Each structure stands twice: as structure tokens, then as C-alpha cells.
Amino acid sequence: MTDTVDNILAEARRAIVKRERLAAQLRQADLEISTLTQRYRNEAKVWITSPVMLRHAVEARIGKKLAA
């Protein structure tokens, strides 16, 4: 493919749309994890304060590290 301004802008548009879609999915996952952290705190009666601590609790329960 020959680089032209139009080709570069079309490729950039696709990349930007892809990035925005992934960012929206990440925001949704972050909201879900936040809600689960609050639910875990209430049910387990612990002072868990962050998603990182929830991750540690999950890893301790299943006995292995989660994929990064």
C-alpha cells in the first residue's frame, strides 16, 4: 500500500475507533471490579480497599496467579 495522506488518515481512524471501543470495555470492567470489591468487603467482613487486594484474595482462593 502506498502511503498517502488519505490512506494514513483512514488507518488512523480505524485505530482510534478500535482504541475507543477497548477503552469503553476497560471502563466497564473497572466498574464491575469496583462493585465486586464492595460486595466482597461486605460479605467477607474485611476491610479490603482496592481491586488489587481483591485480586490477591482470588489468587489465594484458587491457589495460583491470574494471567496478566
Q: What share of residues is helical?
A: over 70%
Q: By helix and strand content, what is the structural category?
A: mainly alpha
- Termini gap: 35 Å
- Assembly of the depicted chains: single chain
Question: What is the rounded Rg?
Answer: 20 Å
The helix-strand sequence is HH
Overall 3D form: elongated
Helical segment count: 2
Q: State the total count of DSSP E strands.
A: 0
Residue stretches low in confidence (pLDDT < 50, at least 5 long) are none
Strand content: under 5%
Q: Describe the main β-sheet briefly.
A: none
Mean pLDDT: 92
Please provide a written account of the structure.
The chain has two helices and no strands. It has helices at residues 5-44, 51-62. The mean pLDDT is 92.
Describe the SSE topology.
Elements: H1 5-44, H2 51-62
Q: Could you name the key traits of this structure?
A:
single chain; 68 residues; mainly alpha; 2 helices; 76% helix
Summarize the structure.
With 68 residues, this protein is an all-alpha fold.
